[in-house]
Amino acid sequence: MKYLDEFNDPELAGRLFDEIARVTTRRWAIMEVCGGQTHSIIRNGIDQLLPDRIELIHGPGCPVCVTPLGVIDKALEIASRPDVIFCSFGDMLRVPGSGRDLFQVKSLGGDVRIVYSPLDAVQLAEQHPDRQVVFFAIGFETTAPANAMAVHLAAQRGLTNFSVLVSHVLVPPAISAIASSPVSRVDGFLAAGHVCSVMGTWQYGPLVEQYGLPIVVTGFEPLDVLDGIRRVVVQLEAGEARLENAYARVVSDAGNEPAQRMIDDVFEVCDRQWRGIGMIPASGWRLSSRYAAFDAELRFGVDGIDTPESSVCRAGEVLQGLIKPNECEAFGTTCTPRNPLGATMVSSEGACAAYYQYRRLDTVPVSIGVG
Fold first, then answer.
1. Measuring CA to CA, which residue among 76, 26, 33, 31 is closest to residue 52?
2. Which domains are delineated in the chain?
3. Which of 227, 320, 344, 346 has a Cα-to-Cα distance from 64 of 20 to 30 A?
4. 223: part of which helix (H) or strand (E)?
5. Across 43-61, average pLDDT
6. Are 259 and 97 in contact (CB under 8 A)?
7. Degrees, nearest 5: CA angle 9-14-17
8. pTM (2 decimals)?
């Protein structure tokens, strides 16, 4: 069936819900990987309108949320220095470090600036040759091309006062870590369409074959998400596991090849720590040796900072799909957007933020170990 010529079509939404209900005969748990999809699901009540047999599990699809506490503390240390202009996207400024956040550093006199592109930070470095300009380069594969381009341009222009604090993470290794976990309940995945628009779908076929789980690439509109859920359920009910691209208007198998070449020039794959989850091998990017001079960790000597995670915040269990946000004892009480314990409560794609914003406030204390 072909869907999604229109995004706001109640009749089509009804047909999608009806088909999902008609084909569902067993209990299935489906994980949406992207935090943008989580917000679409919670904002529109999709999970509440699906058959009771279908559970939607929220995954680690928010790069702000999975940025380790130690990296946040490195950012705070660099941003506090008087010779630094520290540039970041706005969603990082409320993320708590071990004792403060970037807004508090700014209130204490640090020159912390919100930018809308890493190229804005390059421009600031040109305009302020007497200051060190640092860009906080986080994100999944989606933001990597622009961040790589910023480093490439800085090198091309000979800007010795520009550097990046990198915490890039990759989606396929995260899916692999979840699918291989002995406590995973996931029967199928909704993959993030914006990531695949850059990297293509070719990395996901091997994951389907290895774990025998359907993966459907989809977008973020409610009908996109519903269509993705329908496709996963149809596969599961038929005993199949295939890779499907339900976002073909944006995503191709090969992806954006010029963007990938830029990434390959500037970054190299590395092991990466995920906040609340732990180390996932080959799950991140760091600057390649060719561009090591632009590494803010080395330039400012903060590479040794390694902060232990909070023992109170259960964001790691939320990010692994082991609990829902409102099953955490701190949710909505000691942890709120005004006083967050973790990034999942303040990120624009955080699952805890979605539950709080859209009033899923009933708490159910549980005890589930982290896998």
1. 26
2. 28-358 (3.40.50.11740)
3. 227
4. helix 222-237
5. 94
6. no
7. 125
8. 0.90
